[in-house]
Amino acid sequence: MQGERKIRVLIAKPGLDSHDRGAKVVARALRDAGMEVIYTGLRQTPEQIVETALQEDVDVIGLSILSGAHMALFPRIMELLKEKGLTDVMVFAGGIIPEEDVPELKRIGIKEVFGPGTPTENIIKYVLENAPKRS
Amino acid sequence: MFDRQKIEEIAKEKKRWEQTTLTNWVKQCPERRKEFRNHSGITIKGLYTPEDIKNLDYMRDLGFPGEYPFTRGLHATMYRGRLWTMRMFAGFGTAEDTNKRFKYLLSEGETGLSTAFDYPTIMGYDSDHPMAKGEVGVCGVAISSLQDMEILFDGIPLDKVTTSMTINGPASILLAMYVAVGDKQGVPREKLGGTTQNDNLKEFFAQKLCIFPPKPSLKLSTDVIEYCARHLPKWNPISISGYHIREAGATALQELAFTLYDGIAYVEETLKRGLKVDEFAPRLSFFFASHNDFFEEIAKFRAARRLWARIMKERFHAKNPRSMWMRMHVQTSGCTLTAQQPLNNIVRTTIQALAAVLGGTQSLHTNSFDEALCLPTEESVRVALRTQQIIAYESGAANTVDPLAGAYYIEDLTNKMEEKAMEYIQKIDDMGGAIAAIEKGFFQKEIADSAYRYQREIEAKDRIIVGVNDYTIEDEECPVKLLRVDPNVEKKQVERLQKLKRERDSRKVKEVLEKLHYAAEKDENLMPTIIEAVKAYVTLGEITEVLRKVYGEYKELIII
Ligand code: B12
């Protein structure tokens, strides 16, 4: 394990949604699990999120959203990631996202969606297993 | 309350009981846990006796309902006279959609209105602002101008119903619109009753919907308090909110202490406007959460009332008993409700609502069983309202005043909540007050730590959440139908707004906006100018834009 680069994760809050309890809990759990975690803070536009991802050279982007605006915001984020050539970054999400929206989100490239009640342990495991391997 | 000799006798007998009956019993049947604690971290004993409250002085600490220190309730007869106000937080889509929901709720027996605004409105953006894209009407009702507000309250007589509005940064604007609708309906201003949340301090560490930096935010809150004290005698200018603090992750104790501290800050700030404490304090109102631990919550409500009364009397030298009244609204705790097995939420909400009633609340919102899934449907909100009606009319809980008073456990817990809250208050005083504590990130850190601890307890199964970490159902399918907001709302709303902007008197608009800019720079009370502005159909976004220019925007202090 030594010398291996820590997994770098960006936890992002897109749109006007300002529920940050869950995002912070997830951020802290990933950090306690030994990852490098960057938290964007609230009310980020898709452009700002992608810019931060680029600047911080992250492996994983975790989108946290509870406002119901995911269908309006996520496609734009995925589009911008493509434009910037960040196609190897793993993007996943959590918050209040109705089951019926998940297939469409997966189609645009969101790898997984975790809802309320998910143990952070499962989230950590998912990142460890699915983050792109880099050195 | 008890004579000394009797207490000694009980203490002696308790020792004997512990060494004999208790010890023998525990040998056969050990306790389920090594230690029992409530959310606030207070250790709960297996048994409480008069010894635990031997220092309680009935007249000093409890008194009679309707009298200082109001531990037993604000009114002499409490719910025997009038039930609490059943006030369901509601709002989605366009003003028409929410107007319909309001009327539905009133027809089902709710007794007060409560408005949820959408994100753009809360953040001071019009529905056609780029930041509003995809968010219009999604999490509340979209209100950009007086025209929307007129539709929202169409056919609802503002002299007959009281309305609460969950709005903070733009509270003065929404209040101005409400006043304007009242004027149009011909309701005298002294008859307008309701509440603007207008608690900008807790935004910085709890709800996080901040527009301006802390100081101008506090100034705006105080403008509303001052204006109402002088011109809207029945309006509650502020709802000092613990709910958001709690829901962001705080314990009951932190909720109690931080909320009361915010209350202190508003009183101090309003005094600086040259008002006497008794001229505005009677209209300050409070808002708390009711979480899962039944007795802890009841003790919190009782302690809150007593502590506020003492603060108002001793710290601020209020003379009018009404200045010492802590009038409260309670909402059952949304964050205890689960996406898993959502019907279980009805049971949780019932217990939490009962705690609020036994704690003596003036007003209550009960969450719907689909809380962790979407905004409530007509069906789910009806069940939530029925829950209150069942408590009110069937349970007998409303038939006597403060029925749990005198219970050793409740009184001891009430004392402890008050004592420990006072320790926090002292600490924040020493830090230099609420704004200093915000700027240092004190509240933010305390809350984030509690939220994380709570999550860890659940994951360690130290805290069982039925249906989530125990008693789960494999491959559960969502058994309820979700509310989805009509995707055409944004288009309709933007069209209406743009038509309005074309048709109104644009010269007048420009003129009032300039006047507002001037008033903001001169640090005047902005309420009168904002009322003038909304009446000229200046929009919420335009008004906020001017204030953003004068005050700047808040940059979040990030604490994980
Ligand atoms: C707490 C809460 C609040 C608090 C927020 C405090 C804060 N600073 O966060 C307060 C009281 C301030 C609040 C206010 C509002 N709320 Co609110 N709130 C909730 C509530 C009850 C719980 C959310 C929560 O924190 N849960 C605890 C955390 C730990 O769980 P979580 O966030 O779900 O996170 C977990 C998973 O989702 C996942 N996860 C989350 N993010 C991420 C990210 C990644 C990358 C991954 C992998 C996983 C993941 O992992 C976490 C751990 O399991 C929910 C309902 C509910 N029970 O879920 C409503 C809810 C989200 N709120 C709602 C609304 C409408 C609002 C308001 C807009 C109301 C209004 N009009 O005024 C405001 C807006 C406030 C804001 N700040 O944005 C609605 C949203 C409706 C919708 N989407 O259709 C909900 C669903 C309630 C409802 N049914 O009406 N709210």
Walkthrough of the structure:
With 135 residues, chain A is α/β, with parallel strands linked by helices. Chain A has one domain (8-129): Cobalamin-binding domain (Rossmann fold). In chain A, 40% of the residues lie in helices and 17% in strands. Chain A is built from five helices and five strands. Chain A has helices at 21-32, 46-56, 70-83, 102-107, 120-130, and strands at residues 8-12, 36-39, 60-65, 90-95, 113-114. Chain A has a five-stranded parallel β-sheet, with helices on both faces. The model of chain A has no long low-confidence stretch (mean pLDDT 96). Chain B has 560 residues and is an alpha/beta fold. Chain B has two domains: 4-53, no CATH class; 58-459, Methylmalonyl-CoA mutase (TIM Barrel). Chain B has 21 helices and nine strands. Chain B has helices at 4-28, 58-62, 95-107, 119-122, 146-152, 171-185, 214-231, 243-247, 252-271, 277-280, 294-315, 321-324, 344-358, 378-393, 408-431, 434-440, 442-459, 489-503, 506-521, 527-535, 540-551, and strands at residues 85-90, 112-116, 163-166, 194-196, 235-236, 238-241, 284-290, 327-332, 363-365. Chain B has a nine-stranded parallel β-sheet. The longest helix of chain B is centred in the N-terminal third of the chain and has 25 residues, at 4-28. Chain B is globular, with a radius of gyration of 24 Å. Chain B starts with a helix and ends in a 9-residue tail after the last helix. Chains A and B meet through helix 1 and helix 3 of A and helix 4 and helix 17 of B. The complex binds cobalamin (B12). Cobalamin sits between chains A (11, 17-23, 25-26, 62-64, 66-68, 92-96, 114-118, 120, 123) and B (116-117, 139-140, 166, 206-209, 243-244, 247-248, 334-335, 337, 371-372, 374-375, 455).
